[in-house]
Amino acid sequence: MLTRNCLSLLLWVLFDGGLLTPLQPQPPQTLATEPRENVIHLPGRRPHFQRVKRGWVWNQFFVLEEYMGSEPQYVGKLHSDLDKGEGTVKYTLSGDGAGTVFTIDETTGDIHAIRSLDREEKPFYTLRAQAVDIETRKPLEPESEFIIKVQDINDNEPKFLDGPYVASVPEMSPVGAYVLQVKATDADDPTYGSSARVVYSILQGQPYFSIDPKTGIIRTALPNMDREVKEQYQVLIQAKDMGGQLGGLAGTTVVNITLTDVNDNPPRFPKSIFHLKVPESSPIGSAIGRIRAVDPDFGQNAEIEYNIVPGDGGNLFDISTDEDTQEGVIKLKKPLDFETKKAYTFKVEASNLHLDHRFQSAGPFKDTATVKISVLDVDEPPVFSKPLYTMEVYEDTPVGTIIGAVTAQDLDVGSSAVRYFIDWKSDGDSYFTIDGTEGTIATNELLDRESTAQYNFSIIASKVSNPLLTSKVNILINVLDVNEFPPEISVPYETAVCENAKPGQIIQIVSAADRDLSPTGQQFSFRLSPEAAIKPNFTVRDFRNNTAGIETRRNGYSRRQQELYFLPVVIEDSSYPVQSSTNTMTIRVCRCDSDGTILSCNVEAIFLPVGLSTGALIAILLCVVILLAIVVLYVALRRQKKKDTLMTSKEDIRDNVIHYDDEGGGEEDTQAFDIGALRNPKVIEDNKIRRDIKPDSLCLPRQRQPVEDHTDIRDFINQRLQENDVDPTAPPYDSLATYAYEGNGSVAESLSSIDSVTTEADQDYDYLTDWGPRFKVLADMFGEEESYNSDKGT
């Protein structure tokens, strides 16, 4: 080992020119046993040559991994030329693992590894070394960087990281068909020795499969491996390092290989003849049996298609494939009858849907089998001779009249008698009856075509030997018409004629309707009744096509003379017995224009001017109503204006009753009119001279008689009226003085506060002063009255 380390050191020195090149960008250091020249590159300066001494001596570059010795593993030795062996130089170590993995002798410079190393965990360590003066503690030489590499040993076996593996290959594949490639990984150093060189081999799975020792590709080793023989294979693969040599480490994995199916097998029937038994009563479309061909293939390669080979009875049956079981399901296409045919034989072919052309040379991929079907006899219900019976009967046919018959037979071997009866659900009203033995149908009630023209009900037939076996058939009975209703005029029953109509003019075409239904169609005739044929105003013209026209016989008609005409029309039908009816038509005389267009047919229109339309009349009436409304409104306003007397002069005073137009100040207006003077007649009135006229002479104020306290207001008012009448200063114009008084006899009594003098003494109005300034006027008014009453009492 020492010889190999020394050889490595020599190669390193020769390759690097005797210099230790640091891994990090630092200045190169001189490391040699003898002084030599070295090129130093200083940052930012032009390189120049400098002669220096080599200060380091390397003894070892590698350290073995997984070292298990009892002593620390020696790595190498550091030495400086400045170290004279006097103990004045101290060696220091720093970097990866310094102190924990690697240690240095400060005096001798020997480096040791103090624990076992794993290359797969860390392949190399970068360290820095320096020689320091032990006394001054100054570096004797610049710090230098070096690398210690961990030398690999074969301590890891190959591993299949993706195992176990699953693969597939088609069956019947040729030799060498690709299956799968496996890969093993070795954690050892692939650049050093053969520790990571892996070789593959098969430990289990031969002779079916083989593997390439270098690439790990698995291929088939045998031809025509059949999935139907063996489907699953388990192959054990080994990977060994050291190139497979003795002593190498190995790892294994399992590869599960499945042979996938190909269509290499045709379907085969397990037997050549299939026997089936089918009751004759089986419904159409029902499955009557199943057959199966066996195909050992899988999936879509085993899908089978079944077909009936044309032949005996093949048109009565059909076959389809059940998707889940791959069975052939035979179904009935037509009804079976044991009495007609008791057995059927045909062939069925089974073939694959998905063919593989590589295997068609082995033979046809289909097989054929025979199917024999036996029809079983079943006790069946009677069978009617017709699927539907249609009968006819005249209305009003006597009860009990036979109108038809039905027939049903038992077709089974040893036929039984049949009984008939009506299904009460379809003929609830029992209009018909049936003979239980003969099957004859008769009427049970009188029939009316105009009420019901057709009857539809069911007849049930059952076997006497087995009443539970029944069959049903529909009966359709049409009721034929008998001429019993007279014809009538179709609408309209009313028409119109113009006043200016001419003789021979057709004013209306009428037709007839008959509730009877004739098989050949009805023919109607029209004529006037005998009483109307004498001096007729109108006549009837028969057009011989079931219509007639109303024809005028006069030259013009007058609404003033006659507004309505009634025309009796006789209508006869052509059936037997002949039916007829008299229908009265109403003809109204109308005013028309020159083209015959009707303008008006109302009686009131006779008295209207010619040419005045209804719209014009409505407009005239509307104008009259508006004028009347204006007149009524004007009169009402005039009356209201007369009732209101407006006193325009603000200075006009009639005693204590004043009328003025200006608004007051409301409840807060303390300068408003004081009504206390009216309530207190003893107040001295000032002499107020009229300002609207100029007096001729100065008149002294009139002395008015005082009014007693309890004088009636009526007397007071009369006194004031007399004074005004004799007043010489009265104005020369009319003046109206109004005094409202209801009198003592009023039911509602007086609403004026003037008449409440007798009761005011009992009331206290001091609370009005507490209501605020809005009630100050009332408080002063009633407060003055209280002070007046108190003065009078004293």
Describe the fold and architecture.
The structure is a single chain. Among the domains are: 60-151, Cadherins (Immunoglobulin-like, Sandwich); 159-260, Sandwich (Immunoglobulin-like); 273-376, Cadherins (Immunoglobulin-like, Sandwich); 383-480, Cadherins (Immunoglobulin-like); 488-598, Immunoglobulin-like (Sandwich). The chain is built from 6 helices and 43 strands. Strands 36, 38, 41, 42 and 43 form a 5-stranded mixed sheet that branches. β1 (19-20) and β2 (29-30) form a beta hairpin. The model is unreliable at 1-60, 605-610, 645-656, 681-702 and 757-761 (pLDDT under 50). Its main location: membrane.
Which short descriptors sum up this protein?
single chain; 794 residues; mainly beta; Immunoglobulin-like; five-stranded mixed sheet; 43 strands; 31% strand; metal-binding; transmembrane; cadherin binding
